[in-house]
Amino acid sequence: MSELIDEPIDVSTHGIFNWILLLAIFSVITVIGNYVGYKHPIYDSLIGMGILSLITLIGVWMERRLPLNISSIIYISLIGIFIAFPGVPTSETVLYYVSKIELLSIVTVFLAYVGIGIGKSWDEFKALGWKAIIITMLVIASTYFGSAIVAHIILVLTGVPM
After folding, report:
1. Which terminus of the chain has a smaller tally of CB atoms within 10 A, N or C?
2. What is the pLDDT of residues 42-74, one digit of tens each?
3. What sign has the CA pseudo-torsion 48, 151, 60, 23?
4. Do residues 99 and 85 make contact, with C-beta atoms less than 8 angstroms apart?
5. What is the DSSP letter of 9?
6. Which distant-in-sequence residues (6+ apart) come within 8 Å of 84 by Cβ?
7. How far is CA 19 from CA 1, 59, 159, in A?
């Protein structure tokens, strides 16, 4: 498991296998949390996580194989938007299964993974000092409030009752 955290993952067969293994572990833990915490059916959650994992694998592969200097998160976002866009044949299926995955289930597993990563490099994290912690909190809070403001404006403009 430690090699999944330490080594940079490439597009070789070994690298793809590591990504698949990591996403499978991530998916199983997320599905369990999704079932225990939100009572979503395991089968539907597994399919939803399978869709999200496949999108992630394709996005990471595109980042490493295409000659453009674009982050995988952009590829992942564009693929997700495209296959869920109304009118695209995959839209209803993707939206149904992915809606069975609660965001908090995914975030919990992700934060645990980040915690393991930070724990493995605790000395480097401590070297950043207290200023890095304050900056991190400010960035997270600003992102949250900025998103809430934009969402509120959009809801008001579209006439959604508050």
Report:
1. C
2. 999 999 999 999 999 999 999 988 989 899 999
3. negative
4. no
5. P
6. 90, 91, 94, 95, 98
7. 12, 12, 43
